[in-house]
Amino acid sequence: MTAAKSGLQAKTPDALYIGFVDSLLVDTRGLVMTLAGTIFASGVVSFVVASPIEWGFTGLIALAGAVRLRYMIKHARSRPSESVDAARKWERSYVIGATIFMALLGLWTTAVFWETEDGFSRLMATLTTISCAFGIWTRSFAIAKGTNAQLLVAFLPLSAAFAVAGGNYPLLIAIVLIPIFLWIKNSSTKLRETFLGEVAARREAATLAGQLDTALNNMSHGLCMIDRDGKVIVANEQVLRIFALRSEDVEVGADMRAILRRLVRNDVVARGEVERLSQALFRGGEGADLVIPLETKDRRAIEITVHRMKDEGAVVVIQDVTERRNAERAIDRMARFDSVTDLPNRRCFEEQLAITLKACRQAQDRVTVLFLDLDDFKQVNDSLGHTRGDKLLVAIAERLQALVRPTDLVARWGGDEFAILQRPVADDQQTALLAEQIIREVSRPVFVDGYEVIVGVSIGSASAPQDGVTPDIILSNADMALYAAKSDGRRTWRAFEKSMDAKIQIRRLIELDLRAAVTNESIEVYYQPIVEVANRKISSFEALARWNHPVRGRMSPAEFIPIVEELGLMEELGASVLRRACLACAAWPGEVSVSVNLSSTQFRSGKIEQTVLDALAAANLSPDRLELEITESTLLDDRGSTRNALEALRLRGVRISLDDFGTGYSSLSYLLTFPLDRIKIDRSFTIGLGVHERASILVESVARMSKQLGMSVLVEGVETEAQMRFIEGLGTIAEAQGFLFSPAVPETEAKKMLAASGARRRVAAA
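Above: the chain's sequence. Below: its structure in token form.
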């Protein structure tokens, strides 16, 4: 707003200013009554005075009134004003017309006092002018512009009229007119300010109410307030949206009980849910807030918080917590179910076991827990990758679920282990039948991304109440039974027996001692000589692991090596044996080499090549003095990387030999497909040399074939001179090994053997 604008416009918003102007100018009825009264009074005075001047004023007053009336009618037809400028134009025209009209009245009054001394005529003219002046007060609250001008053009001629009258009339100017003038002006100003203040307050209240209404309707929560009688005071739009209600259903004054009944009729909320909410709303006393969870018919979760006010009703906050509920359920499912197989996990299984045991104690039923461990699963992960391993687990899980009853529970315990809860169980035969079915079904081939995968399963079981009545005892006993099944050769089932406890404890103590022995390198490396058949000179030593248990004494490698593999320590132990063997060989004469056995598990990490190179570098040993012995299990477990590692080591000069040849079902194929330098014929064939014709023919044939393929042949397990003479007679076997020459001995004894052999050679040469 600028200073040039009217006082009203300067203090009021544009929209309000336009409304004031339009409302004032549309009041044609008031103008008609004013004109009628004024013309009547002027006509009466003109008739009494009988003066052409008075009749002339009467005509001018009527003309001015007619022009003003026409103007106002024209404005009424064009309402509302298009803009502030248009309203200002209408206001200016109105003020000019009103000022001219008041000026005519003032001049008419002066003319009456000039032409006649008739008291009636003078009184009539004075009252008419003053009455119209009072009208300025009633109109000035809307339009302040021109108020002073209208008062001046009315009262200055009136004052002049009193002066013309002479006598005591001029005193009336000071006594009557001036106070009237000031009262009209001040009163109109005060009325305008009061009115504008009230308008501003109402506008502010309306603005706040609108803002509050906007805030309420844009809340994410529903909000409803009811009085002590259960009548709705306020409710936002979220309440309508959450409960699918119409605005007229929750209008101010609506009965909350009727609204709750409507929710039931509309099939939004079940009756039982509504009754719980109704009790919180109308029967609860003042106190802490009440939180009432509701479930709608369309599976939405609603949380209602009721805050009761003392003797003033209640405030109800309504929140749709469906997403939060679903998220909590998802989190709970993640915590209780396996993400790979979608089976219950260990935590869920233990919870269900505890519940089942409690129920079965009361019903005197029997339940059984079966622990399942997949055999050879690690090889699948190592050879095909964890993704395909997960797919195999999914397939196994589906087979297990197809075998159990609806009352049973299948869970993934972790890794490649599963657990089954049979509830209830009639007898041992029922568990035995299920275990046999599981072993048979799991052993069937599984096709994963085009690969045929075959795994087995070992099972241990324990039953309540005979094997225990608490979850911990049942699980522990089932675990011991599983351990026994794996010790029996795997792919079998064992039920818990009390004697297992002592065996398992012993086995676990051995495992603890074995872990410490591997870590501390307490497992010794012994060396068994390998001699040349032609001259019986020591050409090499085979490095063999030996463990002297602190309690059980010396243990065979056949006893502790499988445990090392099960514990996942074979890579660590193998690296230690390889490193110590290379160090020992470095101290021997240059023509003597060392042979070290490698387990198939050492190839699975993909680090075997680097491990061998590190051992050679640490001992500063030439690669051609190291021979690595592998078994058919390593070749069966070939994943491409095994072959690549062997070829890379062979290119560096390391020799590769196949141990225990002849014990597998497809040994001959490996002679063509793998990079081999030597074949070691197993001791099971050596026993029959010279005694059993078939054994002799087989050894002779393999030796001749291998020599033709460029591979040397070594015969293991030579224990008698007769066996050695037969080997010498063949002429195709390069080396021999066995107790005939020496058992495996410590490194110090190996050095003595080499020293003695060297002395004999020197004597023979002399």
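The chain has 28 helices and 21 strands.
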